[in-house]
Write a structure and sequence with these properties.
This protein has about 270 residues and is an alpha/beta fold. The chain has one domain: NAD(P)-binding Rossmann-like Domain (Rossmann fold). About 45% of the residues lie in helices and about 15% in strands. Strand 4 (about 85-90), helix 4 and strand 5 form a beta-alpha-beta unit. It is globular, with a radius of gyration of 18 Å. The protein starts with 7 loop residues before the first strand and ends in a 15-residue tail after the last helix.
């Protein structure tokens, strides 16, 4: 099991939901927490929770979709806290609309936060990890990065990009012979405000997951240097299902309710 004592752990989107829970759980394991979030009031509440519990924690207001802000904040983190040992690319946004209802700026924002931010944040901290031949990068993707569903074109495409980014980075680091670990996380819908209103047709196989349980599983995967975490286990059939003809693959997704899950989606800002 990984020893996180005093490990500088940076979590993007750390002011709410899954980011907050991971921060609290990793802090209990001795990690020195750094939060990045665009929402200062939310982030400050989490910092207060951490500090009141006696944990070391620092926060920076950062729009991770803006590479200039990312690189400037990264310099501050290195100067004020130290080199990052564990980077968790967690920040994400969702629109949940049919393609023709998606404003262009929403599509661009989705890719800036869900996809391009992975490049900026990872580039900002990877160099020192390579020099030390140690480190861990976690990319929170989605089951929507494994199978595309209706009303999720921008989100799903951005998460497919996240999965591809992690896979390429993983192999690049292995080719270099480094000991840096990458973990990609692909969960089904989680009961956070981000996906308020989503429904599942087959809860026994595809439940709307509890965020605390997901956070526990992610922390466990980090501690065990697990390279991939797909939740729930039923989602692991997707690669096998892709062997079907496209029409049958799509029909299978519809049968399991994948293409209707967003019909009553509300989310935080829709």
């Amino acid at each position: 099991m990984k020893d996180l004592t005093n490990a500088v752990t940076l979590i993007t989107g750390g002011g709410l939901g899954l980011g907050r829970l991971m921060a609290l759980k990793l802090a209990k394991r001795g990690a020195k927490i750094v939060l990045w979030d665009i929402n200062k009031p939310n982030m400050d509440k989490v910092l207060d929770e951490l500090q009141l519990a006696g944990h070391q924690a620092h926060g920076y207001v950062v729009d991770v979709g803006d590479r200039k802000q990312v690189y400037e904040a990264a310099d501050k983190v290195r100067a004020e806290v130290g080199d990052v040992d564990l980077l968790i690319n967690n920040a994400g946004i969702v629109s949940g609309r049919p393609l023709l209802d998606l404003p262009d700026e929403k599509i661009e924002a989705t890719f800036r936060v869900n996809s391009l931010a992975l490049f900026w944040c990872t580039k900002a901290f990877l160099g020192p990890m390579i020099e030390k031949n140690a480190g861990h990068i976690v990319n929170i993707a989605s089951a929507a990065g494994l199978v595309g569903s209706a009303n999720m074109s921008d989100y799903s495409a951005s998460k497919f990009a996240a999965v591809g980014f992690n896979e390429s980075l993983r192999n690049e680091l292995k080719k270099m012979g480094t000991k840096i670990v990458t973990t990609v996380v692909c969960p089904f819908y989680i009961d956070t405000g981000m996906f308020e209103g989503v429904k599942t047709k087959v809860p026994s196989l595809l439940p709307i997951m509890q965020e605390d349980d997901v956070a526990n599983k992610i922390v466990s995967a980090i501690m065990k240097d697990k390279e991939q975490l797909i939740l729930p286990p039923f989602v692991n059939i997707v690669p096998l299902a892709r062997a079907l003809p496209v029409s049958l693959f799509d029909a299978t997704n519809t049968f399991f309710g994948i293409n209707n899950a967003m019909d009553e989606f509300k989310g935080r800002g829709k």
